[in-house]
Amino acid sequence: MTILVTGGTGLVGSRLLRRLVDAGVDCRALVRPGKQVPAGASPVEGDLFDTNSLKRAVEGVSAIVHLAAVFRTQNEDDIWRGNLDGTKNLIAATKAHAPQVRFIMASTGLVYDADASHPGLEDDATHPKLAYPASKIAAENELRSSGLNWSILRLPFVYGDGDGHLASVPPLVARFKWHPAKTFSLAHHRDVARAVGLALTGVMDECIVNITDDAPTTLYEMASLVGSPIEPSAEPLTDPWMGRMDGSLSRRLGFQPTVPTVYQAAQQGIL
């Protein structure tokens, strides 16, 4: 099996790519010129808007793991271009040059409506208003209607391996004035890799699947775990299900997190 990974130098992709290589998987990574990939992976220089590089990247692969995304910017045009137009280009290249591959795309739990009455379920109607989740839903729809063999993994707050994501919580709380009791579904990088590995077997074909650990965690707890406590509050929490996903489907399909809680990750020293 040869796998193409996009976004292989990002926060999630770099850690996934290293784990795939360590597991002996033959990996290619679509990367911009000058970017480094783990030893053992084969770089293909280019990007999602370079037709020739996409052709080189997809030819001969048996699966694609599409992680490339634009998120941390205020420029909505860049977000839509990267997440929707870039995905359209990758889909077109795949249909033209590798139509039999398994195409796995990472999406986000942020697609679920903030005022939901329960943790997000894969078949819930979604009406995201922010550019990032809205562009990911649009990209999901492109893939679902492409005729390719697809699966979509909606990822939660991903952390671990010293990536600094948990450490970003306190400044984000201050910036957006989030309630400290706001609770998010989480997953360690180890379990993102585990979910992708399961999807590569085909058990998630034609499915949208929420990937979560076993213990949604409050912002207050996350901040405390990284040694930067935030102010507590007893004020009522609005939109209590925002950030929460139901992981029942993933469990039925065979996914079990190896790091079931962020507290276990702290005990093991793998934050």
Short description:
The chain is α/β, with parallel strands linked by helices and 271 residues long.
Q: Explain this structure to me?
A:
It is a single chain. The strands form 3 sheets. A 7-stranded parallel beta sheet has the order 3-2-1-4-5-6-10, sandwiched between helices. A two-stranded parallel ribbon has the order 7-9. It has 271 residues and is of the alpha/beta class. It has one domain (2-160, 187-213, 245-258): 3-Layer(aba) Sandwich (Rossmann fold), CATH 3.40.50.720. Helix 1 (11-22) crosses helix 6 and helix 3 (76-97) packs parallel to helix 4. 35% of the residues lie in helices and 17% in strands.
Number of domains: 1
Briefly note the structural class of the backbone.
Answer: alpha/beta
Report helical residue fraction: 25-40%
Name of the CATH homologous superfamily? NAD(P)-binding Rossmann-like Domain
Q: Let me know the largest β-sheet.
A: 7 strands, parallel
Rg of Cα set: 18 Å
Which H/E pattern describes the elements? EHEEHEHEHEEHEEHEEHHH
- The CATH architecture name reads 3-Layer(aba) Sandwich
Count of alpha/pi helices:
9
| Largest beta sheet: strand ordering | 3-2-1-4-5-6-10
N-C termini distance: 31 Å
- Global geometry: globular
Unreliable residue stretches: none
CATH class: Alpha Beta
What is the number of beta strands?
11
Compile the SSE list and pairings.
Layout: E1 2-6, H1 11-22, E2 26-31, E3 42-45, H2 51-58, E4 63-66, H3 76-97, E5 102-108, H4 131-144, E6 149-155, E7 157-159, H5 169-176, E8 183-184, E9 186-188, H6 189-200, E10 208-210, E11 217-218, H7 219-225, H8 248-252, H9 262-268
Parallel strand pairs: 1-2, 1-4, 2-3, 4-5, 5-6, 6-10, 7-9
Antiparallel strand pairs: 8-11
Helix pairs in contact: 1-6, 2-3, 3-4
